[in-house]
Amino acid sequence: MADVTQEERERAEQRELPDRDAAREWLEAMMLIRRFEERAGEMYAKAKVGGFLHLAIGEEATIVGAVRAMRDEDYLISTYRSHGHALSRGADPNKVMAELFGREDGVSKGRGGSMHMFDLEHRFMGGYGIVGGNLPLAAGMALSSDYRGTEEATLCVFGDGASNQGTFGETLNLAALWDLPVVFMVTNNQFGMGTSLERHSAVTDLHGRGEGFGVPGLRCDGMDVVDTYAVIGEALKQAREDRQPVLVEAITYRFRGHSMADPEEYRSKDQVEEWRKRDPIQAFARKLEEEGILDEGEAEQLDAAVVKTIDEAVTFADKASFPPPESLYDDVYVLGDQVKGWYSVDERSAGVHRGEQERELAEQDRGPQDEYGDAVEQAQREDVGIEKATDEAQADDDDADEASAGDEASGRGRGEDDD
Amino acid sequence: MAVMRYREALNQALREEMERDENVFIMGEDIGVFNGAFKVTAGLLDEFGEKRVRDTPISENTIVGMGVGAAMTGLRPIVELMTINFSLLAMDQIINHMATIHYMFGGQVRVPMVVRMPQGAGHQLGPTHSHSFEALFLHVPGILVAVPSTAADAKGLLKSAIRDDNPVVFIEHEYLYGQRGEVPDDDDHTVDFGQAAIRREGDDVTIIGISRQALTAEKAAETLAEEHEIEAEVIDPRTLRPLDLDTILESVRKTNRAVIVEEGWPHGGVGANLAALIQAQAFDYLDAPIGRVTGADLPMPYSRPLEQIAYPHEPQIVEAVIATFRDL
What we know:
The structure holds two protein chains of two kinds. Chain A is α/β, with parallel strands linked by helices.
């Protein structure tokens, strides 16, 4: 179990709080993530959301603290636990929820799902499903910023599990070698999926791991939004002004399972309860009240507004259309004079088809849009068996699945990979 | 027209495109100070400087991934992998990222980049340094795949690849680097992707040769004409994605026979794929089963006599063509 030292905690305590408006906005941003994630979990249990769902409940301060330390022109790149990053960067909650629902109006038009959010407008450069896969991309973005002579910096977020991938060492070396304006932020939530830090890393002080590559390390209390903001801010400054990449370790804990299919046998309920006492949202609200920045009852008002936003997001997502089948091949390639289409053979098309003609062909084959949407929803419900009220029930079900088949590909009782 | 080596044609393409667009840059192992393991990038560092010609550490996966990140944010990177054998270390970035990002994020961002690398056996480099992997890359939707066999195509296709907004896997060939050919003088000589070249016309059989094997197929066609009175039509697809299937089908409908030649492994090979496409669309025109000549189904041996029989040469192509004329 990694944690900040007493000294670091005291340092965090003494940090200057943001002004009233910023403080309220940070609190609200954390609440938005919390409520979004809770509702996403419920929607998953109702089979509105497919695939994997990784929630960031407990990690809100690492997200908001880091993102608020960034400039608009900076790039943010994240992992498969990225709803919060998208939201904090400014993505429309409606579109993030619609992506979870697999709808055409989702941020990634229903192509990516929970693990692959993206919002170019806000320079949220994506959530990525391959652990450690985003590090090289981040260095490439920083290289691009440098090449174009800009002051942009890149913040690359990944988990403790990713720090054991080969890309970690390769990318840190290159970033330092080429003096790139990039900050690597390892969100140390103590587990790579179900493998604890001590069981996956010989050296558990992750922020020290960059030194051998020429990347100095900093550590922050990831349960404290103000400390996270300050440390990431310092790291971004070094990256931007001194062209010195920095590795920041944010100590945190995820309150929920790795994904919705996680019986959590690798940790005790007591341990979870201990960390819940450090709930980053409650802690920040309490502090703001103590300091007189927040009036009594104001936190509840903020929360109520956030809940309303999420209600609207769910309504929006539910009403949005599924991507029509004729859009299946859209955006595989950038089509143009040179690439007009490509020959393909797949189970969907009886014969050989070309990508650019697929729209017309498929349109002829399908019925009215409503029937199509209903059929998709029905299939999704059948995929999970019956509707489930809670994800605990889901977990029980997954246990049963594992006992019998334990098949990744069958419905929702899925195992998973790292972090 | 100027006569030059394949590697010089590639070098010209790189130089011209870097002059044309300041967002084009190249990175890879030993491409700068060393001038490239195969000298394709010779002189570029002196001409364009360290910002645009970047020697990298030996970190294939990360080099490709950095290219992806740079391409997503406004640049047009060219990544040289020293040989195709090392692309296996970069497969995650090539498939899960480079090929996928445009689709995965609903078309919001493009990945205009080129990954160049040579393939091929024949230099006694043994099992880990003699691969031909066009089939692996052909397998992946989201990338374009070029397999130029002549100096003119090497230059024209590379220029098109650099200008295209899709990620391109550009497969060169170690044997071909030293081969000479005529190349148009025009600065703007480009070759469009998705257009096969008919290297030799003939009415009796269609031979489709991939990468270096397009040249071997041409030689085999001359032998077939001289010694067996068989006039073969030789087609070089030049790009595998997109594929100019129309030209291939038109030829097969004329000749009623097809033989596909590639250097890679037989199972799941380019020929397996092409044979499926041809039979699906021209079944009634075929007078014989489609023939295939491939690399042997094994890791490439070092010893010269073994290596020489482990990848296609002219006699095997001649034999495969003649087999399509035997009574069934």
